[in-house]
Amino acid sequence: MTTEASLAYVEQFQSEDDHLRTARQHAETVGVVPVLPGARAALSFLAGAAGAKSVAEIGTGTGVSGLALLRGMLPDGVLTSVDLEAENQRLARQVFLSAGISPTRFRLITGSALDVLPRLNDGGYDLVFCDGDKVEYGEYLDEALRLTRAGGFVVFDNALWHDRVADPSQRDPETLAIRELVERVRADEDLSALLLPLGDGLLVLQKPH
Ligand SMILES: C[S@@+](CC[C@H](N)C(=O)[O-])C[C@H]1O[C@@H](n2cnc3c(N)ncnc32)[C@H](O)[C@@H]1O
């Protein structure tokens, strides 16, 4: 079994530069919780492995996951990221620009995910990353499967939700929604999926070819 010490070792395996540190400081200031370092590294890796030219993100926050995705994608790849909060996106934009990312490589859309996602193109994305409202995760899966190209990836953060998903006595709305999502993905024989104990848990699935 993996011990707490090993999980902590995994999180420390990848170092973070000043731009990621600044994004994390902004997150603390505005009160959002960014992906932890293990999950952040996995996002870069997956965007690279997918040869991603086009990625959609739900939950820009202050740009930790967005910068990871932009760094993993092809050099001309474009990130489309949705968030309810314009202030969070203003800080994410600052982080991307100071990290040397061209403004042509990201499109930040302010709005509610369930209003914005239906306007995005079917099959137009190599990877869709979901990190918005946990209660909406089931609806994000429906939208993400529509948006992702065949063979592309859909990734959810907080799939273990602070150890609550694995504990059946925890029945708050966020935990129930995430547990339902994980069970739905597990039961779907068409989806190849991984539940990774990185950060707060990363659920990765591949849309069938
Ligand atoms: C956990 S934070 C995202 C952190 C970011 N992915 C990162 O790692 O840097 C969640 C974000 O989702 C946004 N959010 C919450 N509910 C939303 C919704 N229904 N539609 C769009 N964004 C939402 C919040 O404003 C917040 O910025």
From TrEMBL:
GO biological process, one term: methylation
Gene3D superfamilies per record: Vaccinia Virus protein VP39
GO MF assignments: O-methyltransferase activity; S-adenosylmethionine-dependent methyltransferase activity
Record's keyword annotation contains Methyltransferase: yes
InterPro entries: Cation-dep_OMT, SAM-dependent_MTases_sf, SAM_O-MeTrfase
Record's keyword annotation contains Iron-sulfur: no
SUPFAM superfamilies the UniProt entry points to: S-adenosyl-L-methionine-dependent methyltransferases
Annotated keywords: Methyltransferase, S-adenosyl-L-methionine, Transferase
Domain of life per record: Bacteria
Any Pfam family the entry gives: Methyltransf_3
Descriptive protein name: Predicted O-methyltransferase YrrM
Organism: Aeromicrobium choanae
